[in-house]
Here is the input.
Amino acid sequence: MEKKTFSDWQQLAVQLKIEGRAFIDGTYRDAASGRRFDCVSPIDGKVLAAIADCGEADVDAAVAAARRAFDAQVWAGLNPRKRKAILLRWAALMREHLDELSLLETLDAGKPIGDTTTVDVPGAAYCVEWFAEAIDKTGGEVVPADHHLVGLVTREPIGVVAAVVPWNFPILMASWKFGPALAAGNSVVLKPSEKSPLTAIRVAQLAHEAGIPAGVFNVVPGGGEPGKLLALHRDVDCIAFTGSANVGKLIMQYAGQSNLKRVWLELGGKSPNIVMPDCPDLDRAANAAASAIFYNMGEMCTAGSRLLVHRDIKDAFLERLVAAAHAYTPGHPLDPHTSMGAIVDQTQLDRVLGYIESGRSEAKLLLGGARVNAIDGGFYVEPTIFDAGDGSARIAREEIFGPVLSVITFDSVDEAVSIANASEYGLAAAVWTANLTTAHDVARRLRAGTVWVNCYDEGGDMNFPFGGYKQSGNGRDKSLHALEKYTELKSTLVRLR
Ligand code: NAP
Ligand code: MG
Here is the structure.
């Protein structure tokens, strides 16, 4: 198959039909209130579609449908082999619709088409496949007990799972929730971000086509409201959230104010990327450091947004880093050669530019720092690097979620570890060193859910649990451990005599 060109994608974009309604109980419907909101493309600021702005009636209908389906056991009661077959069909449909889904994601979120076609959409299909393949191979335990007892420990689906997700990897982050939750037999109500609802809405139809019964998978788009309504809902058993720490704190409160539903949070980060003076390959490390902060416009929870460099190699490293950053000049997201697309919306653009302004007074600008007019009306920011000295500047402490890197200088291993851990977050970290002892010692001391040694952002497969220490959240997405979030553990004791 010929690779599609920029103009192929532009033509496909013109022909694209966009669904903007909610998906509840097996059908698309408008919000009960009739309200809609504009879905704007960050590529050029133009309106793509009108999206159902779901409120209380819609959330109640979706949760009720999910509950009915769960109670009727139309999904949870299937032999896991049958759930597997249906989920594999769904994943196959996502792959068949790769171009369409990638296009929706690129238009909606400004992500480069070269990424959505290779990472976001195939990654979501792979996640569904992985959990589908796992679910008919994971069983319970028969545990030691008194001789007159049979002791069983089993896992059962929790019931109705609400998934509330962000906009930076819209369909991929959603799949990390609905993949394991559905495989385990739950019903799901998915709330995509209002900034990027299109792929979630589209895959709902594919779920239906694949044979997922009505009510088992629902999508309720809308402003912040449906997320809050789901978190407060008394008939939601579990909420799986990915987003900011501030909203994560609210979600916990909502659970406490309502029914103590299970709460799982995947939150932000300010991840340290530490380059020791014995870094084995400065060129590779500099390329990885650029990708760690500029890939996906820096809209990455794991972004290596704090680069800690040893004073002895600082100049040599920064020279390479700046050269590597030039590969991320913003371009049209539909051009397959583009590696840096558009910032997701005006609000996020303003936030990023605000941080850059604050950085100018607290740190030394080394590269970038401006909005660029890559396409008229679009939201583009240059790759930006600040020398942030000891790391006390605001840009070096707070999550920006944009292409802005803070370089921090250190003089010893202990100092590097102490700066790295001096953050309220603990999502990811990396260390570059040729010394095996330093590698293991530092990896062990870093307070983060993922540690990379001599690489960054490696490990796209599902086997690694993903999540954070501290205010980066609780629980883990991906891997068999993700199933723990969506199941209750039951002890059954049978007395024989
Ligand atoms: P956000 O503002 O926290 O929003 C996340 C989701 O929560 C959206 O669907 C949002 O809906 C909804 N929401 C907003 N207010 C709510 C409320 N009061 N109650 C319930 N739900 C509410 O985060 P974001 O800006 O979309 O995403 C960026 C953040 O996500 C960053 O902090 C990033 O680090 C984090 N993230 C973490 C991971 C991870 O795995 N650890 C992965 C990706 C992103 P609306 O958009 O409709 O308002
Ligand atoms: Mg959008």
